[in-house]
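ok posting inputs for the glutamine job
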Amino acid sequence: TKANAAEPNYVISTDATYAPFDFQDKNNEYVGIDQDILKEVAKRNHFTYTLKPMSFNAAAQMVANGQADGIIAGMAITDERKQVYDVSDPYYKTGVAWITKKGSKIKSLSELKGKTVALKSGTAASNYGLSLQKKYGFKVKYFNDTDTMYNDVVNGNSAATFEDMPVIQYAIKNGLDLEVKNPNNPGNAGGYGFFVKKGQNPQLIADFNKTLKEMKADGSYQKIVDKYLKSDQ
Ligand code: GLN
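and the output
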């Protein structure tokens, strides 16, 4: 789009691989529930943005360091993060799943004793996993992206992993050979939000909240969710 002096341009960071919220389609365009909502917020509030896709950890740091104005990345609203960021109203429900290879004999967290658990750096799910480490006696191994982390479990290098329920469920539905052990009992249930650095860009948060409310009322929010969660054959 042509630069317009009247329209602010924001730098927004995101996770390059976090389907169905943030990922690249066949044409290498960044799409997903987050990306479609963000696009609509920008359109309805007359701003443009430069998207910076990268690892989740780096994307979150960019906003904390003031190098980006905001982040949308399937990022859970936590008390810890509220110390560093200001956050929008929640736009999607989440919670943490614990996951093994499909058909694994492991039935309970206590069976992870001495085994390796794959975690994604800087995530709420990794903090949740770490909070259980002492009790269950597993080792941890860190990854920067969800797909590589999943593969470590598929390959049998790690015995289990922790990831958000909607994200793992989408991957399994699309053929990933993993299994959720606590489908009805997610850990740390909460919601995803759009984040800015604390005290910065209050207008972006106000715009996001206003448009989210409108989109829920006019059906466009549900249309976006259905596009990603109901479209697969
Ligand atoms: N939902 C997780 C969190 O909030 C992970 C986000 C991500 O990996 N993109 O930390």
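notes: DSSP finds eight helices and twelve strands in the chain. The first strand starts at residue 9 and ends at 15.
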